[in-house]
Design a protein that fits this description.
By secondary structure, the protein is an alpha/beta fold. It has helices at 17-28, 52-68, 102-107, 117-132, 141-151, 197-205, 224-230, 244-253, 268-275, 286-292, 304-316, 318-333, 337-353, and strands at residues 2-8, 36-42, 74-77, 94-98, 135-138, 157-159, 183-188, 213-218, 236-240, 256-259, 280-283, 296-299. A six-stranded parallel sheet has the order 2-1-3-4-5-6. Helix 1 (17-28) packs across helix 13 (337-353) and helix 6 packs across helix 11. The longest helix has 17 residues, at 52-68. It starts with a strand and ends in a 6-residue tail after the last helix.
Length: 359
């Protein structure tokens, strides 16, 4: 019996993409595959809460001890950005899932936001650890290409697409000052510069001749700069964070989903919108084009005019809208849990065949 331990570095209870991914991985290999046993090791401060750096310090102090209590033939680190905490002796027995390379891109000046010196140290340590792993899973071919270009890691990186996470049945979402029944564009994202929330507002500003159109932004409260940018526009609503049932409702009600990110490692919100029957306009970030295929209208994130024209087409052409909705449903259905399970087991088997560390 081959023993595999999943390493969780994010608590499973609070909502978040890492908790959702851990649950998808668990579902993908149930019932357990023949010849394998699976267990979970939590590698975060059990006190919970606190800053990210408190959990990092806890991992630096306790990772070896905690992992020693979970002996295994192979370890799967569910968040490759935490590879810095893989003890060197365990790298040859580790697989890591790389969701994106945002910190590395920022450190190279290819995305906005320069990391602090402790963050830069952690990034270097993470890249070194990933180079030593027995195998890597990349969410997308775009991330696979980034690993080769930015970290010089190639040849043992498998593309393992993330399936659509199940959303609960929709529950009516209350958005302050949003009149019932009006048309609205939906965006879901946080305030990191690569999410391009400012670009969302700029696109909406170019649709101001449509007086019945509203914009709903789901996510954390806007930065003062973003609020000031939108102050001159009518019908902009910052909905704040919503739970998955309310998010499902917003996807279903929205006239379209706008996602003009400068960069993404994958694009789960695009899949969720398509599955819910919401047509998508997104940027030409490689991972988004890869995920959406022909089921989205795409334009460069830095071209708000063309993005606005794509939105206008969907709002004005009902036949196009219906066609894109159907394409989206079909596209989203292709990202299934069974495929994830088969891909992961293949990665595990290949990693076990590699006996020597990689430089």
């Amino acid at each position: 019996m081959k023993r595999l331990v999943w390493i969780r570095t994010a608590p499973p209870d609070p909502p978040g993409s890492m908790a959702a991914y851990a649950e998808l991985v668990r579902r993908a290999v149930e019932p357990p595959a023949a010849g394998w046993s699976f267990s979970v090791c939590d590698l975060f401060d059990p006190r919970g809460g606190g800053s990210m750096w408190r959990h990092h310090l806890w991992r630096l102090r306790h990772a070896r001890r905690v992992l020693a209590a979970h002996p295994a033939d192979l370890y799967h680190w569910l968040d490759g950005s935490m590879a810095a905490f893989i003890p060197p002796a365990l790298r040859v027995r580790s697989v890591a899932t790389v969701h994106d390379l945002i910190p590395l891109l920022q450190s190279r000046g290819e995305l906005p936001g320069r990391p602090s010196w402790p963050a830069a140290w952690l990034i270097r340590r993470t890249v070194d650890a990933l180079r030593g792993c027995a195998g890597l899973c990349a969410d997308s071919a775009a991330t696979q290409a980034d690993l080769a270009r930015l970290a010089g890691i190639a040849g043992r990186v498998a593309v393992v697409s993330v399936p659509l996470r199940p959303l609960p049945p929709p529950r009516p979402a209350a958005v302050a000052d949003l009149p019932p029944g009006v048309r609205f564009i939906l965006h879901v994202g946080h305030n990191a510069a690569y999410k391009n929330r400012a670009g969302v507002v700029d696109v909406f500003a170019r649709l101001d001749d449509l007086p019945d159109l509203h914009l709903v932004l789901v996510g954390p409260p806007p930065t003062p700069e973003l609020r000031a940018r939108s102050a001159a526009l009518a019908h902009v609503h910052f909905a704040g964070p919503v739970d998955d049932a309310a998010l499902h409702d917003l996807y279903r009600r929205a006239a379209l989903f706008l996602f003009p990110s400068l960069y993404e490692g994958y694009g789960m919100p695009v899949l969720e919108a398509m599955a819910a029957g919401c047509p998508v306009v997104c940027s030409t970030a490689p991972a988004l084009v890869e995920v959406a295929g022909a089921a989205a209208l795409c334009a460069p994130a830095t071209d708000p005019e063309t993005l606005a024209a794509a939105c206008r087409s969907l709002l004005a052409d009902e036949a196009l809208r219906r066609r894109q909705i159907e394409r989206g449903r079909v596209r989203a259905a292709g990202f299934d849990v069974a495929s994830l399970g088969r891909s992961l087991l293949k990665c595990y088997e290949q990693a076990l065949e590699r006996k020597e560390p990689h430089g």
